[in-house]
Write a structure and sequence with these properties.
With about 400 residues, the chain is mostly helical. It is built from 10 helices and no strands. One of its GO terms (biological process) is signal transduction.
Length: about 400
């Protein structure tokens, strides 16, 4: 707003124009006419660049055009005839009207004092010193006096005075708010100083509780880890014992079967591998098969030996030449026959055992038709193969 009343540059240029105008009349030098023309152009540029109201600008430009137009005949006459007519003319009247317009919008040092106001305002905001408030109020009072004493219209004076009053009241409200903020800040700082020890104590207590809780959790976790490790070691130990026990049982049976196979290859085995009736594991099945093989071999060998002994006794009886030799041959033949009967009884018991297995499976299948499993099929197969083998032994013996 102050820029609308800042006409000092225009007033200065106007004074330079009037001075060059008078120098032209006194010295009659064309350079002063050119000087006036240059200053007129400069004045026009200042008007366009100013922040004056548009109506004021238009008045100044119109009067400047009148001055420029009427100055040219005056300058031409002064240079040719030297008759200046006392410097009177329409150009002089136009210059007076321009000066009146500028005076009507001129408040001395208005913009400078406004800058001083803003400076005191910012110094107060930066430093908070009450001295800047006093300085600002003094400058505002000076401005108010300058506006009242200026040639401005009453409307412009009232407008500027109102704006200045609003600014001063707003600034004083800002000062009051600043004082209130300072007071509140001091009270908050005092309360913070009182509360700080309590907060520190609570924080320390919370830290101690947290540390104790963390320590308890750590101890509990360590105990849980130890218990878990013990449980794991216990489970591993039990698993190891189970594996060792199972392995020993399997290895023992396998070693027994290996020994029997070795005896079977190079001797006459009499021992048998212990089996579990109804067992379903592969080792038990291998043991049963090996025992059956040994039984069949033993039966075959017994039958073969009995038949050989019987043939030898019969041959000796046929060749006996004396009563004593005949009696000895009859005794040997009787012993061979007895052994053969015993062998037949053994085969009979084996056949009865296989037959009982077949009957048992048959009865179970009749009670539950369709419930045939692999174990039953395998048991029937083994019983049938055993009977076939025993019957083949009898057939060989009969032959």
């Amino acid at each position: 707003m102050s820029a609308q009343y800042y006409v000092d540059p225009l007033y200065t240029v106007l004074l330079q124009i009037r001075r060059s105008e008078k120098d032209l009349a006194l010295r009659r030098d064309p350079a002063y006419r050119e000087r006036v023309r240059t200053l007129i152009q400069e004045f026009r540029q200042f008007v366009h660049a100013s922040e004056l109201r548009a109506a004021v600008k238009q008045k100044l430009l119109s009067e400047l055009a009148v001055y420029a137009r009427t100055f040219e005949p005056y300058a031409e006459n002064a240079l040719k005839t030297g008759n200046v007519g006392g410097g009177m003319g329409a150009f002089r009247d136009a210059a007076h009207r321009i000066e009146a317009i500028l005076r009507a919008h001129h408040v001395p040092n208005l913009e400078t004092n406004v800058y001083k106001l803003r400076r005191q305002e910012k110094d107060f905001l930066l430093r908070g010193d009450e001295a800047y408030v006093t300085k600002l109020v003094d400058i505002a009072r000076t401005l108010r006096s300058q506006i009242a004493a200026s040639p401005l219209s009453e409307t412009d004076k009232a407008l500027l005075a109102g704006l200045l009053l609003d600014y001063q009241q707003g600034f004083l409200q800002l000062v009051a708010q600043h004082a209130s903020i300072v007071t509140l800040t001091r009270e908050v700082d005092a309360a913070a100083r009182q509360i700080a020890p309590l907060i520190t104590a609570n924080v320390n207590q919370a830290n101690q509780m947290m540390a104790a809780r963390v320590e308890a959790i750590t101890e509990s976790s360590q105990a849980s880890v130890r218990l878990g490790m013990l449980s794991m070691y216990g489970a591993l130990a039990l698993a190891l014992v189970f594996v060792i026990t199972l392995t020993r049982r399997i290895v023992r049976k396998v070693r027994q079967m290996a020994g029997l196979l070795d005896d079977l290859a190079y001797g006459a085995p009499t021992a048998r591998v212990p089996t579990l009736p109804g067992g379903r594991d592969e080792i038990n099945a291998m043991a049963e098969s090996l025992n059956a093989l040994l039984e069949h071999r033993a039966n075959f060998l017994d039958c073969w030996k009995t038949s050989i002994n019987e043939m030898i006794a019969q041959r000796d009886l046929d060749r006996a030449n004396s009563e004593a030799a005949r009696d000895e041959a009859i005794t040997a033949l009787r012993a061979a026959s007895t052994a053969k009967v015993q062998q037949l009884n053994t085969i009979r018991e084996s056949l009865l055992h296989h037959a009982e297995q077949i009957v048992e499976i048959h009865q179970r299948l009749r009670s539950a038709p369709g419930d045939v499993n692999t174990d039953d099929v395998q048991a029937l197969e083994h019983a049938a193969q055993g009977m076939v083998t025993l019957l083949e032994v009898l057939a060989v013996d009969h032959t």
